[in-house]
Design brief:
Blueprint (H helix, E strand, L loop, with lengths): L3 H14 L4 E4 L1 H9 L5 E7 L4 H16 L4 E7 L12 H11 L5 E5 L3 H8 L6 E5 L5 E5 L1 H8 L5 H12 L5
Parallel strand pairs: 1-4, 2-3, 3-4
Antiparallel strand pairs: 2-5, 5-6
């Protein structure tokens, strides 16, 4: 019989061998997915393969998911569909990137609506952006360029996101 750590490592390796699942969502589908995880801290990373800061920071979401598998749900929303061609044409590069960074433990989604429409509905100027929800479903913080400039005086990083998650997981839980 395997010990707890060995069993967890084996489960992680098994999950990494499975193909990446990529859910196709519109704005309403995204909101339903977030609401489905009420009771846990939810982290949503809005990103695009054409965004260098997004691509650079994305592996930190993978690490966050690995660090808190029971109490945190990590979601990724690729906003790669620019309205040219079909959203299906945006799927292969997104899936390839997610495979490359090992995003098997994350709920991965790609927007079926044009990026500009999603930005408007999410009240975003652009990506990267990370939302963190409390277990009660209320938004704890949204990290984006505007928030970071005002609240942090610098670009946000996953160290900021992780600090928020750790605060929410602490016994007092902000």
């Amino acid at each position: 019989m395997l010990g707890g750590v060995a069993a967890a490592g084996l489960a992680w390796a098994r999950a990494a061998a499975d193909p990446i699942e990529l859910k196709l969502v519109d704005h309403e589908g995204l909101l339903r997915e977030v609401a489905r995880h009420r009771g846990k801290v939810v982290v949503l990373d809005c990103w695009s393969t054409s965004c260098p800061p997004c691509v650079k920071e994305f592996p930190e979401l993978v690490c966050l998911a690995a660090a808190h598998p029971e109490r945190v749900v990590c979601l990724s929303l690729a906003l790669d569909y620019e309205g040219i061609g079909t959203f299906e044409e945006a799927v292969p590069p997104v899936r390839e990137f997610l495979e490359r960074v090992g995003a098997h433990r994350i709920i991965n989604m790609i927007a079926t609506e044009e990026a500009d429409s999603m930005y408007t509905k999410l009240d975003l100027a652009g990506v990267p952006a990370v939302y963190v929800w409390r277990p009660d479903g209320s938004l704890a913080v949204r990290y984006d360029d505007d928030h970071a400039a005002q609240a942090l005086g610098r670009p946000f990083t996953y160290a900021d996101v992780e600090a928020t998650v750790n605060d929410l997981l602490a016994p007092s839980g902000r």
